[in-house]
Amino acid sequence: MKAAFYSGQAQFKIRQINPVSLENDSVLINVAYSGICGTDIHIYHGAMDKRVHIPQVIGHEMSGIIEKTGKNVSGFKKGDKVTVRPLDWCGACAACRAGLFHICYKLNFIGIDSPGSYQESWAVKERNVHKLPETISLRNAALIEPVAVACHDIRMAGLKENDFAVVLGGGPIGLLIALILKLKKINVILSEINSFRLSLAGKLGLTIINPQEENLETSINERTKAGGADAVFEATASQTAADIMPRLLKSRGKMILVGIYSKPLQLDTSRIFLRELSLHGVRVYEEEDFTEAIMLAAQNALPFNEIITRDFKLDEINDAFTYLDNSPNAMKILLQCS
Ligand SMILES: [Zn+2]
Ligand SMILES: [Zn+2]
Description:
The protein is α/β, with parallel strands linked by helices. It is about 30% helix and about 25% strand. It is built from 12 helices and 18 strands. Helix 4 crosses helix 5 and helix 4 (about 145-155) packs across helix 10 (about 285-300). It is globular. The chain starts with a strand and ends with a strand. About 45% of the residues are buried. The structure holds zinc ion (2 copies). The site of one zinc ion has 9 residues, from helix 2.
């Protein structure tokens, strides 16, 4: 079978390999589609060469069909439509003992720390697999993982109907957060500077602001009529956004750190003090977030067609990454794996 190995220095090599022998607690999935995530781009650029095991198959956003089940697998059968929650945990550390398996101290992020889904068939433990309703298309289902990220971020913010939220950054995750907030009847403004992303968000019915054209702080103050928002979702991983974030919140507002920062941030701590703001780290998702994401996909509640920019074949993986690298307007790129 075919697999795409990240080989270092912005290169993937397609190789024919023998399928792995299936463990008793695992299933073999025929991978239908696999998305390219921001993390995959970081890997491609060599930023995570110390963490991945070159040459390695990466990829973790996917959909597929069960091809074979291990001896002890009881929840799945050949032909089931599935997606994978790509986190494997140790079960013994303090986080696991507290039930926080998704932030296990020894977390194995499948597709980063161990082989991923950029291949025709992928063997995964049964406990990482979620069954999909028949009505979900496999193409849309490849977006369930990023949707689960957005569901988790929103759940951690603990907002209620009619609250007011600001999302900084309209990339795939920021856009999904804003769309799902709107579904939950939370008032939301999306701030973004890329004109294509702004117009896409506007077309999808979101309220948008370009902070290069409008003063974000003044505008949020005026629109909330409460001296600021209840929560800000920071999905740009930029210092510029971190500078403005505490100034957009009302008393006891929440800063949700969605972006992944490569270096320490500077934050206006006096504003945090004056307004008793809180800062929340959010990381990946828990089982219930995947369940919610699958439900949203099953209800066709999200405009996946508008979010998927382009499909490539697995063989064209190098073209797909080059394209994404050179297309500031691209949102989600999918690889058709089998
Ligand atoms: Zn991802
Ligand atoms: Zn653990």
